[in-house]
Amino acid sequence: xxxxxxxxxxxxxxxxxxxxxxxxxxxxxxxxxxxxxxxxxxxxxxxxxxxxxxxxxxxxxxxxxxxxxxxxxxxxxxxxxxxxxxxxxxxxxxxxxxxxxxxxxxxxxxxxxxxxxxxxxxxxxxxxxxxxxxxxxxxxxxxxxxxxxxxxxxxxxxxxxxxxxxxxxxxxxxxxxxxxxxxxxxxxxxxxxxxxxxxxxxxxxxxxxxxxxxxxxxxxxxxxxxxxxxxxxxxxxxxxxxxxxxxxxxxxxxxxxxxxxxxxxxxxxxxxxxxxxxxxxxxxxxxxxxxxxxxxxxxxxxxxxxxxxxxxxxxxxxxxxxxxxxxxxxxxxxxxxxxxxxxxxxxxxxxxxxxxxxxxxxxxxxxxxxxxxxxxxxxxxx
Amino acid sequence: xxxxxxxxxxxxxxxxxxxxxxxxxxxxxxxxxxxxxxxxxxxxxxxxxxxxxxxxxxxxxxxxxxxxxxxxxxxxxxxxxxxxxxxxxxxxxxxxxxxxxxxxxxxxxxxxxxxxxxxxxxxxxxxxxxxxxxxxxxxxxxxxxx
Lengths: 382, 146
Description:
The structure holds two protein chains of two kinds. Chain A is α/β, with parallel strands linked by helices. Chain A contains 13 helices and twelve strands. In chain B, a hairpin with a 5-residue loop joins strand 2 and strand 3.
């Protein structure tokens, strides 16, 4: 089967852009990605795209051009962008198409996400009583993890400080002001043990990629990035996931992130120690900590030492969330997963600007997590 | 004092009316897995032969958090306003040999919550609906130290 390359990347700055719809931010990112690849919209055989709250992605054809291409909408919670990419990957891998686009965008109102319990397969009572809130799950999952593996609040603070520091070096980030340890550690408690500045916020943004057959990539661009693996997995029985009204007593040792990660490493034929730079879903500080272990980069409990030693800093052995992650970029659901891939492509191409990892990079990794318990992983290489 | 009419927050969540209400779960006849709320198939083995059972009313706290801001209305129907809101506890309570239940907790003080502590079920008035009926919901509270 053919391999797949990413030959164009585009992004609309994340954060708040008043007066610009989510769809327009997606169109902006799409045009940027086309320009980056030196291609026209009419060159696209297909597109997969999605948003959670900003309308149907396929309506962007009326702005980009009515070329008659196959455009399929994707809706997969926070893994929407990752799922669009996975679909585009398969479309090329199958041999059906040579070149196409994955695009994601969103625009959410301020404040915590409002959850539609009934479309989420939950009873109305669950929202009535005040349990249909993602921050509660994040608080409860890290609370148990800290208890089981001796992670302390210090590590929660360090993750946030690192990601805001990285965000300050990223012109497309929402939050470009570094926060001190003190500011994070004393910010308002939101869902114990997680404080205000340990959480990302719903936001806006758009992101797009152009994918093509790997054997054509070098003819088109100077620095293609190869998509070595893409994997999306849902929750198996016995994992602790968001919006679980109950949990089984037996716990699986393969939650969805572990399943997706292992499948991706197997597909790529490399191991976690061969990854040079990673983007791990950091909906809040606790998520990044747990995802370091679930993706196979460290053992449960080692994160405490890793953060203290700066292993995941831009200058460390495994830089994590070099663009500031969700904490500094916010969470536009449809775009987040693609933002992660955008950043890895930028790093592998040596175009990370002030946040560029100061050594040669060959491989990168992205991981996105979404409700009601699914994970998407990609492995990329130069 | 005239007793207000009481209704459960949802049918089938717990036995009601009752002097000793119990949460209702389902147990799979094939693999024995218990789920809450009761459902018609088993999430573990996909079996469709499940029975509704009354769950234990005591268990231990498995994890917890404190909800620190007023949830969006809707879907939230709690009686608080932005001014009157006080944080509330949420956790998972492990019922021996059955299942862990997600529940609001009758405790909002982080210094009084500890993983592994004994908890017990209470069903009590949560809010009044527009018709003046008391909407009853389940909570878990720390078992009083003796």
